[in-house]
Amino acid sequence: MHAWLCENPVGVDALTWKELPTPTPGPGEVLVEIAAASLNFPDLLIIQNKYQFKPPLPFVPGSEYAGTVRAVGPGVTNLQPGQPIACLSGTGGFGTHTLAPAERCIPLPAAFDLTDAAAFIMTYATSYHALIDRAALQPGETVLVLGAAGGVGTAAIQIAKHHGARVIAAASSADKCALAQRLGADATLDYSVHTAGGSFRDEIKRLTEGRGPDVIYDPVGGELAEPAFRSIAWRGRYLVVGFAAGPIPQLPLNLPLLKGASLVGVFWGDFARREPQANAAMLQTLAQWYLQGHIKPVIDRVLPMEQLPQAYALMASRRVMGKVVLRNAH
């Protein structure tokens, strides 16, 4: 097998494509032949030693992937060799094979495309958990999605629309706003035009007829967070999903008070660990929505697995719309 090995977490330049022994699965593990793996924001942080989870060195990055089970370890009864699966295990995806905990793999229907499956779990599970579980989104409510052209943003648009909400998609360029409209957004807000220090709040007010959005989905953080929160509707819910912009906002606590609003943390990974049955039911629902055509991952491009450094460069450039997927030749 081959894999991208991180022996020193100082960034992309420290990754090396190496031939390694193909491992044998231990108790509770499966050997996966990886068809495709997607690039997520935590995959960038983890090789810079900036993510909350710090795996022991050396490790193979790549949190999310799809492929075929080739062998199962002792005690594995829910999966079998030859079965297509998707997995989100935190590491191991950027290679040709990996060992994965069986409990973190979900069996896939034969009709589920493996390239789509590699770009599915993290973004759709995060967005469903955020909008449906944490925000209790209701049909007819208005959702403002920040970072709307990214992986979780595009998933949030599709889930909110399928749930009957009105969606305002905010993104950093006209092209990204156009993508959001193609996904079903009812209105868009280009914050390269309407900036945090300019007309951003005025535009939100105009698009919601002065009422403000009921739910704000924020995977971005940074300077947009405070003006967005100041625009929220009475009893609104502000979903703290992540901080792709870098800086973690410092919000004055009088803002939730004045609007009777809720500041809601979204940590899907810990939800999956603490509430595995609820998470499994959610993933089953999402898989059905995919097969029914209600949701589909937005894939910016597919690159050969050997071009992982180029994929990281694309992510760092913030030009990606949806997700980048790495595909193995086998």
TrEMBL record:
Residues 11-326 form the Enoyl reductase (ER) domain. SUPFAM superfamilies: GroES-like, NAD(P)-binding Rossmann-fold domains. SMART domains: PKS_ER. It comes from the Bacteria. PROSITE patterns: QOR_ZETA_CRYSTAL (PS01162). InterPro entries: ADH-like_C, ADH-like_N, ER, GroES-like_sf, NAD(P)-bd_dom_sf, Quin_OxRdtase/zeta-crystal_CS, Zn-ADH-like_protein. PANTHER family: QUINONE OXIDOREDUCTASE-LIKE PROTEIN 2 (PTHR43677:SF4), SHORT-CHAIN DEHYDROGENASE/REDUCTASE (PTHR43677). This is NADPH:quinone oxidoreductase. It comes from Tepidimonas fonticaldi.
